Structure formats: C-alpha cells, structure tokens
Amino acid sequence: MSEEMLNKGSRVLLYIAFLMAAFFLSYFLAYPLGYSPLGYEVVEKQENAVVVQSLNTWGFEEERVTYQPPEGYEWRAEALADRIEGQAMEYHLFFTSIMVAIFWLGMEVLKGRSMKKVLVLSSFYVFVSGLSLIQHLGNIKEILEGSLY
C-alpha cells in the first residue's frame, strides 16, 4: 500500500470516528439530558388533558399550559403528548447536524479552502434540520393554541 492510500484511509477513519462521536454526543444531549431549548415537556397526563411545560432558550422551565381538547376530540391530547415525546428525535438530528457542520467547516478551512464558501455549504446541513425542528415545534404550538387538527 502506498503512503497516499494510507493517508486517505486514516482520513476516512477520522471522519467516521467524528461522525460517531457527534452522533453519540447529540444523542446524550437530546435523550438522557433532555436538553430542548424552546421546546416542551409533558408534566402530567390526565384522562382528557395534558399539562405541558414550555422551555426557554436555555432549556429551563418557562410557562405551564394545561391543554384540554374540545369535547369529542380527546385524541388530540394523546397526539400532543406523542409529538412532544417525538421532539427529542428532532433535537438529536439538529445537534448532530450542527456538530458535523462545525467539524466540516474546520476541516475544509484547514485544507485551505475559502471560509466563506465552506460556511455557506455547511450551513445548508443545519438549515435543513433546523427547518424540520422549527416545523415540529410549530405544530406543537398550534395544537396548544387549538388551531391544528
């Protein structure tokens, strides 16, 4: 094997190792720590109502809201609880994309590429996952306000 092939192989292994580290670190942030800035968490489930805690930018408690669906639409309370529990996956994807974009930005700048060009390309990763997260949180907010479904 040539030296160039070994360098290429070690670079690929470095990328894979960083992707795995970013995946596990973001998993730890989203699931065990439950860090969800501007998100929601279910405080209490009742028979036909859900008590929801909204979180601020730092992930600390902000406001409690009791959601009680209209009569005949009790399933909405369960749908709201399911969406709130599903937001951890959205945050996991978002945190992973941020870490990968930062790593990619650093690696490309070290290679001598233009930071402006790389910044635009790497921000696309964060944009897509951020858009998905914003849509998910917007759907939760619409359910709480009673304008969805």
Could you give a quick summary of the protein structure above?
The chain crosses the membrane at residues 12-30, 88-106, 118-138. The protein is of the alpha+beta class and 149 residues long.
Strand content: 5-15%
The largest sheet has its strands arranged as: 1-2-3
Total strand count, please? 3
Our measurement of the CA-to-CA distance between the termini, rounded to an integer number of angstroms, reads: 61 Å
Bin the helical content.
Answer: 55-70%
Mean pLDDT: 90
- Write down the secondary-structure element order: HEEEHH
Question: If you had to describe this structure to a student in words, what would you say it looks like?
Answer:
Keywords: Membrane, Transmembrane, Transmembrane helix. The chain crosses the membrane at residues 12-30, 88-106, 118-138. The chain has 149 residues and is α+β, with helices and mostly antiparallel strands. It has one domain. It contains three helices and three strands. It has a three-stranded antiparallel sheet, covered by helices on one side. Strand 1 and strand 2 form a beta hairpin. Helix 2 runs antiparallel to helix 3. The longest helix has 36 residues, at 75-110. The protein is elongated and about 70 Å long. It starts with a helix and ends with a helix.
